[in-house]
Design a protein that fits this description.
Layout: H1 3-11, E1 13-17, H2 25-35, E2 39-43, H3 49-59, E3 64-68, H4 73-82, E4 87-88, H5 94-102, E5 107-108, E6 110-111, H6 114-122, E7 127-130, H7 138-146, E8 153-156, H8 165-170, E9 177-179, H9 185-189, H10 193-212
Parallel strand pairs: 1-2, 1-9, 2-3, 4-5, 6-7, 7-8
Helix pairs in contact: 2-10, 3-4
Length: about 210
């Protein structure tokens, strides 16, 4: 498995971040690092995303920063040029996946169905995003499809929160969970970075405790 994805597996949780203003990029990165999660998936759905990735990776080189909601190869180029170390897409776009593979960029496309998972396996992927996780059957669905696809690991995102994350983390086929509860938009816009650090510390503790009882 790619070294970047292995790092995400060590973290266990990947904060899914929506940044509307680049001024929030550095303090948010600091809050996550102070909380013990030196990683983030910055969604490429805002005008501030590209520059925010550039700021975070430059000022906090210890962070593993990726770009999410990547829909085109042009966005792949922009994200990687800004410093993104991995690419995440909400669905399975063969053109984007192929482009990333050719350029040796870690890519985690979104899948829900067995057919999409087989496409991922055919293209040589070991990790896929399961999205939207909870509306699509959650952990029970992942366990059901993981049985025939033993070579895949999953990064469920969508509806994951502190109340349901532990069973996910305890399942060996989960690489990491994407979550946004510690980086909610209102916390960022209000500048509540101390609160983000506290929530991040609690998330890290959930990872630690879940792995202790595996």
């Amino acid at each position: 498995m790619n070294i970047t994805l292995k790092k995400l597996e060590q973290f266990g949780i990947v904060p899914v971040v929506v940044l509307e203003d680049t001024k929030d990029a550095a303090p948010l990165a600091k809050a996550l690092c102070d909380g013990g999660l030196a990683c983030a998936e910055v969604t490429f759905r805002t005008d501030a995303a590209e520059e925010s990735i550039r700021i975070m990776t430059k000022e906090f080189p210890e962070m593993v920063v990726g770009a999410g909601t990547v829909l085109t190869t042009e966005q792949v180029d922009r994200a990687v040029n800004a410093g993104a170390q991995f690419i995440v897409s909400p669905g399975f776009n063969p053109a984007v996946v192929k482009y990333c593979i050719e350029k040796n960029i870690p890519v985690t496309p979104g899948v829900v169905t067995p057919s999409e998972m087989e496409k991922a396996i055919e293209m040589g992927l070991e990790v896929v995003k399961f999205f939207p996780a909870e509306p699509s059957g959650g952990l029970e669905m992942i366990k059901a499809v993981a049985a025939p696809y033993t070579m895949l690991k999953f990064m469920p995102t969508g509806g994951i929160n502190p109340k349901n994350i532990v069973p996910y983390l305890q399942y060996e086929k989960i690489l990491a969970c994407g979550g946004s509860w510690m980086v909610k938009g209102n916390l960022i816009s209000e500048g509540a970075f101390d609160k983000i650090t506290d929530l991040t510390k609690e998330a890290v503790e959930l990872v630690r405790s879940s792995r202790e009882v595996k």
